[in-house]
């Protein structure tokens, strides 16, 4: 059997294959009113199609733990029960297709309050349903961005509790995996990186201080997330800065600590903390960072980064470079990538009865 189609077990959960869907924002929820942040028909068909296509595990897009934690006014949220009910509909369908439902819970920090990417993606003010961004330090992400408000310790503690509540709501919605978003320059990643974190209190300065908020979030989530269900953490393994940023060495060191705090798998990406950095983009360009974590920290990993070919994905898992691959844009182009891969490699995936004539 192809390595891609070997089941994978974390705690008591077994995922049917190693082809998973990475979280990708859709910016398609309502921006305000009683349905703000609520998943709708677009989200249902979007995730449902990838489940019907045989994807083993689907991580829903960055879902905000609070209104001000959204990247854009149009992001999904998980801060109220109306949102939970809509997510439960998606979860139930994914399970019916033998796909494991997961969700990424997030806070955008200083990169919040932006327009949809197809409308420029720039930060917006209150006239366009925007708000004042929050951050570890009053340092904007890019030139021309609004200066974020530096969080007080009391506000930090409040956000930790928002993550805890979001994890409980994710459980209530029926998700089997929850992922804490610590990557791409959003709030948790801002605390990790000395490029964005200029604090002088117990949340800034040393490695131990800069990782404190992330660990408090992980501990809060793990306290409500059942012991038999896996917890993921997404990280940017490097800021791609020549100096003054978060590094691959930091990631390996932190991965071992996350393992001790109950994280079961590290979703290893890179970048997003600083604009205009030089990133050597190419096929599988982020995979070596995942491999380092797997080999040096002993924590299971999922790899991302321009994984677009069936043979490429299979080799990553077969060679032990990662335990699974998380596909992004390729699954946008081809919702049935897993079924295609199974046909090429001789693997097996769930096929809806309605589609058996096409197998």
Folded structure, characterized:
The chain is of the alpha/beta class and 359 residues long. 33% of the residues lie in helices and 14% in strands. The protein has 11 helices and 12 strands. The protein has helices at residues 41-52, 81-96, 153-173, 187-192, 207-210, 212-224, 248-260, 287-297, 310-318, 329-333, 337-345; strands at 8-10, 13-15, 19-21, 57-64, 100-106, 134-135, 149-150, 177-182, 231-236, 265-269, 301-303, 324-327. The protein has an 8-stranded parallel beta barrel with strand order 3-4-5-8-9-10-11-12, surrounded by 7 helices. A hairpin with a 2-residue loop joins β1 and β2. The longest helix is centred in the middle third of the chain and has 21 residues, at 153-173. The protein is globular. The model has no long low-confidence stretch (mean pLDDT 97).
Strand order of the largest sheet: 3-4-5-8-9-10-11-12
Q: How would the global form be characterised?
A: globular
Ends distance: 18 Å
How many strands, what sense, and barrel or not for the largest sheet?
A: 8 strands, parallel, barrel
Count of discrete alpha- or pi-helical segments spanning 4 or more residues: 11
Helix and strand string, N-terminal first? Answer: EEEHEHEEEHEHHHEHEHEHEHH
Oligomeric state of shown chains: single chain
Radius of gyration: 19 Å
| Helix content class | 25-40%
Our estimate of the beta-strand percent is: 5-15%
> Would you tell me the overall average pLDDT?
97
Structural class per helix/strand content?
A: alpha/beta
**Uncertain residue segments:** none
Based on DSSP secondary structure assignment, what is the total number of beta strands?
Answer: 12
């Amino acid at each position: 059997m192809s390595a891609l189609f070997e089941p994978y077990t974390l705690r008591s959960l077994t995922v049917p294959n190693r082809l998973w869907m990475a979280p990708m924002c859709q910016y398609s929820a309502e921006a305000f009113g009683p349905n703000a942040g609520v998943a709708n028909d677009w989200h249902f068909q979007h995730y449902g199609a990838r489940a019907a296509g045989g994807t083993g595990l689907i991580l829903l897009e960055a879902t905000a733990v609070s209104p001000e934690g959204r990247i854009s006014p149009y992001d999904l949220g998980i801060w109220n029960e109306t949102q939970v009910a809509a997510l439960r509909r998606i979860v139930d369908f994914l399970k019916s297709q033998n796909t494991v439902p997961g969700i990424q819970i997030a806070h955008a920090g200083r990169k919040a309050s932006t327009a949809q990417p197809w409308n420029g993606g720039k930060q917006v003010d209150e006239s366009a349903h925007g708000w004042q961004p929050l951050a570890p330090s009053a340092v904007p992400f890019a030139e021309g961005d609004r200066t974020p408000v530096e969080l007080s310790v009391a506000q930090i503690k409040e956000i930790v509790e928002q993550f805890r509540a979001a994890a409980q709501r994710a459980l209530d919605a029926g998700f089997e995996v929850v992922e804490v978003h610590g990557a791409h320059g959003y709030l948790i990643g801002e605390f990790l990186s000395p490029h964005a974190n200029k604090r002088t209190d117990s949340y800034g300065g040393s490695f131990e201080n800069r990782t404190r908020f992330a660990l408090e979030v992980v501990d809060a989530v793990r306290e409500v997330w059942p012991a038999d269900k896996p917890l993921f953490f997404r990280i940017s393994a490097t800021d791609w800065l020549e100096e003054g940023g978060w590094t691959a060495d930091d990631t390996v060191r932190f991965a071992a600590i996350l393992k001790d705090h109950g994280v079961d798998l590290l979703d290893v990406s890179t970048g997003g903390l600083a604009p205009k950095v030089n990133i050597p983009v190419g096929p599988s360009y982020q995979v070596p960072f995942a491999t380092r974590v797997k080999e040096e920290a002993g924590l299971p990993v999922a790899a991302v980064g321009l994984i677009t070919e069936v043979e490429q994905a299979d080799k990553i898992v077969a060679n032990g470079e990662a335990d699974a691959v998380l596909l992004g844009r390729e699954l946008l182009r081809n919702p049935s990538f897993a079924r295609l891969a199974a046909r090429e490699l001789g693997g097996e995936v769930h096929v809806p009865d309605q589609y058996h004539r096409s197998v």
